[in-house]
Amino acid sequence: MKHKSCSVSKTQWREREAYELSNGAIRLVTLTGGGHLARFSLAYDDPPVSPLWTPPWETIEPYNYRAGRHASRYGSLTEGKLLSGLAGHSICLDYFGSPSVEEAQQGLSQHGEAPSVRWVAGRPRVTTREASLKMRARLPAARLDLDREITICGDEPMVYFRETVTNLAKADHFFHWTQHVTLGPPFLTPKEVTVSLPGTRGMTFPHGYDEGKALLRSGEAFAWPEAPKNSGGTVDLSRPLSQEGLGLVAGVLLDANTDVGFIAAVNDRLNLLIAYCFRCADFPWVAIWEENRAVAAVPWCNRTVALGLEFGTTPLPVPRRENFIAGGPLFGVPTTTHVPARGRKTVRYAALLAKTPPRFTHVEKISFEGESILISGGPKDGPIRVKASRLRELFD
Question: pTM above 0.90?
Answer without folding.
Answer: yes
